[in-house]
From TrEMBL:
<dbReference type="InterPro" id="IPR036497">
    <property type="entry name" value="GLTP_sf"/>
</dbReference>
<protein>
    <recommendedName>
        <fullName>Glycolipid transfer protein domain-containing protein</fullName>
    </recommendedName>
</protein>
<dbReference type="Pfam" id="PF08718">
    <property type="entry name" value="GLTP"/>
</dbReference>
<dbReference type="InterPro" id="IPR014830">
    <property type="entry name" value="Glycolipid_transfer_prot_dom"/>
</dbReference>
<feature type="domain" description="Glycolipid transfer protein">
    <location>
        <begin position="2"/>
        <end position="112"/>
    </location>
</feature>
Length: 144
C-alpha cells in the first residue's frame, strides 16, 4: 500500500472507496481478484492498526518494562498468528527471541521522546484506533 496516497487522501475530505480507487489507479498494488477488490489492502491496514494498538496497550499495561519482545509477541499472537501457518508462527517467535529488538529506552531515545510524552501518544493512538477499527469493520462488512 502506498502510504503517500493514503496520507494525501486523508488530508482531503474523501471516502475510503476513493482512497482504495486511488491506490489501484496509481498501480501501487496489483489488482486483486474481483471478490477482494478494494478490501484486501484495507484488511492489511486494519490488521496493522490493530497490531500497533495491542503493542501500545501491552507497553502501557507493563508500565516502563524495557523489553519490547513481550508486547510484540502478544500483538502477533492476537492479531496476525491466526492467519499464518504453524511454521510462520514459530519463525516469528524465534525471530523475536534471536533478533535484538531495541529496548524501550533506546526506542524512545531514537524517536526523541520521553516516557511521559510517549505514554500520551500511545494512549491517544489506542483511543483513536478503536474508532478506526469500528469504521473499517463496518466498511469491510458492507463490501461483502
Amino acid at each position: 500500500i502506498n502510504i503517500g496516497v493514503l496520507k494525501n487522501a486523508s488530508e482531503a475530505d474523501h471516502t475510503l472507496v476513493f482512497v482504495a480507487d486511488l491506490i489501484v489507479q496509481d498501480r501501487k498494488t496489483r489488482r486483486p481478484p474481483e471478490k477482494w477488490y478494494n478490501s484486501r489492502d484495507l484488511v492489511r491496514v486494519k490488521r496493522s492498526i490493530a497490531m500497533l494498538r495491542v503493542i501500545f496497550e501491552q507497553i502501557l499495561k507493563n508500565n516502563r518494562e524495557d523489553s519490547l519482545t513481550g508486547p510484540v509477541n502478544v500483538a502477533y499472537d492476537n492479531i496476525l498468528a491466526p492467519y499464518h501457518s504453524y511454521i510462520a508462527n514459530r519463525f516469528v517467535h524465534l525471530f523475536t527471541m534471536v533478533e535484538d529488538l531495541p529496548t524501550m529506552e533506546k526506542l524512545l531515545e531514537q524517536l526523541g521522546e520521553t516516557w511521559d510524552s510517549a505514554v500520551d501518544h500511545m494512549d491517544r493512538y489506542v483511543q483513536a484506533s478503536n474508532m478506526l477499527q469500528t469504521t473499517l469493520r463496518t466498511y469491510l462488512t458492507h463490501m461483502g
